[in-house]
From TrEMBL:
Upper classification of the organism: Bacteria, Bacillati, Actinomycetota, Actinomycetes, Micrococcales
Signal peptide span: none
Region ranges (Disordered): 1-22
Protein known as: Glycosyl hydrolase family 16
Sequence ranges of Polar residues compositional bias: 1-10
Highest taxon of source: Bacteria
Species for this entry: Promicromonospora soli
Length: 263
């Protein structure tokens, strides 16, 4: 699925910058799978195209659910790292269920961009489809400790809450399995059409977290995530009934990503 060796040069890089203007996705910057250790490669693999104005994430009609045990959810995702315990173990990133998770696919350790402090800005055009959601997250890498699992949610953009008259952006902190954190999310209504290009950014360090939309501070938190985080950018589909071939592909575009590691 991926090169089995850690990418040393990318690991040491303090910068992340991509405008997706190459003919293919740069595998020294991105893992094009969604949490591949909890499922199988055919289910975790991202569907995407490199287009004129960025990377178009797709949900296709023939795309299988990510994990059948979790329902019909489908996802195309790119992320800046991967790590997991051995096959058969319960050790792995982003344990989205309290029990019953077992590693199915051996996933090499890749620390492509996993800062403990810094800033990142992602410009996306979200999907207006009411069954879709675009997520932009910084998620704990968890390699050193399963408690290092908190999340900075830059944006969750649900298709049925977006439009020319304004859009709702969900953002904040998710504790997950980190007892030092408290989940603190807010749904913020903004005068933007999030189906067109807008920027979502975070700056985090020992003083806390600041979240921005189009360069303006929208939310702040004094909570500190002082451990490696990986960036994840996803297009999800949560089917609400029978899936019609004429409704696909469902898409969102990632126009650019820029990140800097803190001191």
């Amino acid at each position: 699925m991926h090169d089995t060796q850690d990418s040393g040069s990318a690991r040491r890089s303090k910068e992340l910058a991509d405008t997706f203007d190459e003919s293919t996705l740069d595998t020294e910057r991105w893992v094009a799978h969604y949490l591949p250790h909890w499922t199988t490669p055919d289910r975790s693999a991202a569907r995407y195209d490199v287009v004129r104005n960025g990377l178009r994430l797709r949900i296709d009609h023939d795309q299988p659910p990510w994990r059948p045990e979790d329902g019909e959810m489908r996802v195309s995702n790119i992320q800046t790292g991967s790590w997991t315990g051995p096959v058969g173990s319960a050790r792995g990133q982003h344990r989205h269920r309290p029990d019953g998770l077992v590693v199915r696919t051996a996933t090499p350790t890749r620390r492509l961009w996993t800062p403990s402090s810094g800033e990142v800005e992602v410009v996306v055009s979200a999907s207006p489809d009411p069954t879709c959601m675009v997520g932009i997250w910084l998620v704990g890498f968890e390699e050193s400790s399963p408690e290092d699992s908190g999340e900075i949610c830059l944006a969750e953009l649900f298709g049925d809450r977006l439009g020319p008259d304004g859009s709702t952006v969900r953002l904040g902190i998710k504790a997950h399995h980190d007892p030092r954190l408290e989940t603190d999310l807010a749904d913020v209504r903004l005068p933007i059409d999030a189906t067109t290009p807008h920027s979502y950014a975070a700056r985090w360090d020992a003083s806390g977290v600041r979240l921005f939309v189009d360069g303006a501070v929208v939310r702040t938190s004094a909570q500190v995530l002082a451990y490696p985080l990986q960036l994840m950018i996803d297009l999800f589909e949560f089917p609400a009934g029978p899936r019609s071939l004429s409704d696909y592909p469902k898409t969102a575009v990632v126009h650019s990503v820029a990140g800097t590691t803190g001191p």
